[in-house]
Design a protein that fits this description.
Order of helices and strands: HEHEEHEHEH
InterPro entries: HDACs, His_deacetylse_dom, His_deacetylse_dom_sf, Ureohydrolase_dom_sf
Structural class: alpha/beta
GO biological process, one term: epigenetic regulation of gene expression
CATH topology: Arginase, Chain A
Number of strands: 5
Shape: globular
Number of helices: 5
Oligomer: single chain
Protein name: Histone deacetylase domain-containing protein
Strand order of the largest sheet: 3-2-1-4-5
Largest sheet: 5 strands, parallel
CATH architecture: 3-Layer(aba) Sandwich
GO molecular function: histone deacetylase activity
Length: 177
């Protein structure tokens, strides 16, 4: 969802609502969007902000057909948007490499809080997209975030396979380890 319209299966943009509240309190926020679809609404909302570092890792050439590498923000937000459009067929190695790069850049940003758009439609058994992330990849993502940052929250995004509970549990176990 964007400022003025519901879109992308979202009536409200939960990560953006929570993040804006934190920004209003004077906090800097790193949003890591691991949903297989690009978070065009979240990107749009914070595209001109230097208080939010937004990073999306999503399948390239998939709905909503946005999230190209050269979309990096504008105005005060120039350089505060990162997109990792991953080719269909990408698996754990590609996903976790992108996570590692995003974490290293986010460390330089020094966020007060990390928010995760935890979408699990990149799961290897999810037929909506062509990504191939294992349960272990979601665990590793959570674990790597926890090794780098202390204040983390997540909101559930996409995921259409019946194993979404397992995906969510794997990610949370990684954060709790």
């Amino acid at each position: 969802a964007k400022h003025e319209i519901a879109a992308g299966f979202c009536l409200f943009n939960n990560i953006a609502i929570a993040t804006q509240k934190l920004v209003n309190e004077g906090k800097k926020v790193f949003i890591l969007d691991i949903d297989g679809h690009h978070g065009d609404g979240t990107q749009n909302i914070f595209y001109q902000s230097n208080k939010v570092l937004y990073c999306s890792m999503h399948q390239e050439y998939a709905y909503p057909w946005t999230g190209k590498i050269d979309e990096t923000g504008e105005g005060e937000g120039k350089g505060y948007t990162m997109n990792f459009p991953l080719p269909a067929g990408s698996g754990d190695n590609e996903f976790l490499s992108a996570v590692d790069i995003a974490i290293e850049i986010a460390k330089k940003f020094q966020p007060d809080v990390v928010g995760v758009s935890a979408g699990f439609d990149g799961y290897e058994k999810d037929s909506i997209l062509g990504l191939n992330y294992s349960l272990n990849a979601y665990y590793e993502c959570g674990y790597r975030l926890r090794q780098a940052f202390q204040n983390i929250f997540a909101v559930l995004e996409g995921g259409y396979h019946q194993d979404i509970k397992k995906c969510t549990e794997s990610f949370i176990k990684g954060i709790r380890t």
